[in-house]
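Fold Annotation — chain and its backbone
Encoding — discrete vocabulary of local shapes
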Amino acid sequence: MFIIGNFMYKMYSDFFKSYEMIDSKHLNLLDDNEGSMNLFKLLTSCLVGITLIGCASKPIPPTPLNKNFYDDKNSKISVIVTSPAKVDTYLFGADCLLCYAAAAAANSSLTSHMQTLPTTDFTNVNAEILKVLQEKGKIAEISTASPNFEKLKSFKTKENGFADVDYRVLKDVLKTDKLLLVQISRLGASRSYASYVPTGAPVGSVAGKILIVDLNTNKLELYMPINVDMSVQGEWDEPKNFPGVTNAYYQAIEMAKKFVLTQLK
């Protein structure tokens, strides 16, 4: 294992330096055996991540808010906003295992910084959502429950306008009639690659979806993808705090929040 790790560590150190993708301030893998083991662990993590990229289900078309949504003053709606466990750096286009390992190492300083930022900068939008709903006469609450949405079974129907997973099982859990869910899958910075080579600077990035689903029927009353990328103004590569990327990230958060609230107007 150490022999393989040393070989890959040496190969990628030389590769990064020859292409000037990173320098000593970015190559934070340690020397000798410990560095080899760190790289070996990184490659293993990358393999798991790439393997989990499976076939996507048929996408749900964007569905604007049901025009009669606010006419129903009696049904109760619960609000849940979820996000990844931590703010992170997302790398796209580095599709092979070693490509991804190279890209991850090249952006390790940025990743370390992004992971220090709190996810609550976005998830606190739940209070703003609640305010909008209540001002329009809805019976609404912020749910304190934490359902495992990944374990919900798929929902099969030939009709359009329904969720692709079965949210109906949550009706008794949440003790509500409808669910407003903002589910964020990407929160942080993203960067595009062509194999080993970056094709641009990192951008502030927020992606996911907002939906409202009737827990009696599983019918959608709103479904919109969220996809916000904000470019860095000026220099981005400024460790340790990366102020340009951080500012772009917070701009992306504000744009994503605005987008979410606009869907409810």
Q: What stands out?
A: Strands lie at 76-82, 88-92, 139-142, 178-194, 197-198, 203-214, 220-231. The mean pLDDT is 86. The two ends are 58 Å apart (CA to CA). The chain has two domains: 1-55, 58-262.
